[in-house]
Amino acid sequence: MDRLETSARLMIVSDLDHTMVDHHDPENLSLLRFNALWESKYRHDSLLVFSTGRSPTLYKQLRKEKPMLTPDITIMSVGTEITYGISMVPDDGWVDILNKKWDRNIVVEEASKVPELKLQSETEQRPHKVSFYVDKSKAQELTKELSEKLAKRELDVKIIYSGGMDLDILPKSAGKGQALAYLFQKFKKEGKSPKNTLVCGDSGNDAELFSIPEVYGVMVSNAQEELLQWHAENAKHNSKIIHAVERCAGGIIQAIGQFGLGPNTSPRDVSETADSHLEDAGPAHEVVKFNISYEKWRRAEVEHCETYIESLKASCLPTGSFIHPSGVEKCLRESICAMKRIYGDEEGKGYRVWVDRVLPTKISSDTWLVKFVKWEVLGGLISLPSTSLQSYYMCYSCHSSLLITQLFLRAVKGVLYNVISSYCMFSLTYNPF
Ligand code: GLC
Ligand code: MG
């Protein structure tokens, strides 16, 4: 990963469904809490890796449905496809490795002789992954039968059962664990091995992640029976693996704290009026807090009072400016008043804001420029035209010694997925008083 010049402070390798993403929480609270924590405290010097069973098609679908961050590395199709960065550049070296001793046609041919195997959708059939649905009661027996059949054809395969229903056939050298081991090798060659790695999962295809040496691991509280059983049989005495008491992303946050991997208080868990601690200070943290305050104001989750507006004003440099996407420059403090009009305008509408790829750059001894992407969603479906969302974008968190000096917004034309994203820049400086 070229974004970081040195070793990542923390690398999180997380499964998505029922681990990072809680499909039983329509509010996506733990995911939003994790996002805020990651962007305020880890993004700048750490790596976020998503490792999912989903194909690229279903992965992109999930990103349309849930408030997710952009990972640095995306591992899809149960460790058979690795891509880097926002543009998802594929790792061809990995493909070469997987091609060895693999013949997809033979797998399909042999599997078609087993009537109990029900083929998954076309999107989930990938160059190095053939996937079926199998009844829980027959999983073990069928796995055995299949591996015997494929061994006779001299194929080196791996059969993985997950979620009490999915059966994947992959090359032996593939899988989430092998893909992670491959990444570790790459980092090592570059002299950038992560200082700490935390793997997170809930089901059978995640088990391999926990057997990679040196990693910390968290099985979220809602982990599937097959993963817990694997753990009981293979890793019971490994003190670096925990079964969290919290569900999904809540379990990941819990593990960060329990293993002492770094701060684990999400800015979403800190009340607006709480005094901020010195350890919280930092430009990324300010940007995250600002956007949470903005969301809460529009959701009417904070009290509608004059002092709130006054303190927001006080947090901006008197000469601070706001540069509208149209190019018009306004006084930041005056602009704060405009927020009064939008108090609670999104109340009860499922409105959420989350910031992504928050990257501060120090541009002088006391000033930072922070670039980030702001995502907004309204009730799962977005209908705001991008012009209307800009004009009030001028408040700032009041509990900090960092002051906003300039806010610059560039609207992204059109609507991406079902959310609006905007590229933003904050310029922040230390309070001279
Ligand atoms: C995801 C994939 C599916 C796979 C399952 C378990 O749900 O879409 O194809 O079988 O993960 O790995
Ligand atoms: Mg899962």
UniProtKB/TrEMBL annotation:
Residue ranges annotated for the Sucrose-phosphatase C-terminal domain, each copy included: 283-380
InterPro entries: HAD-like_sf, HAD-SF_hydro_IIB, HAD_sf, NTF2-like_dom_sf, SPP-like_dom, SPP_C, Sucrose_Phosphatase, Sucrose_phosphatase_pln/cyn
Record's function text: Catalyzes the final step of sucrose synthesis.
Protein name per the record: Sucrose-phosphatase
Species for this entry: Trapa natans
PANTHER family hit by this protein: SUCROSE-PHOSPHATASE 2-RELATED (PTHR46521:SF4)
GO terms (BP aspect): sucrose biosynthetic process
Family: Belongs to the sucrose phosphatase family.
Subunit comment: Homodimer.
Gene3D superfamilies: 3.10.450.50, 3.90.1070.10, HAD superfamily/HAD-like
Pathway: Glycan biosynthesis; sucrose biosynthesis; sucrose from D-fructose 6-phosphate and UDP-alpha-D-glucose: step 2/2
Catalyzed reaction equations: sucrose 6(F)-phosphate + H2O = sucrose + phosphate
Record SUPFAM superfamilies: HAD-like, NTF2-like
Domain (Sucrose phosphatase-like) ranges: 9-260
UniProt enzyme class: hydrolase
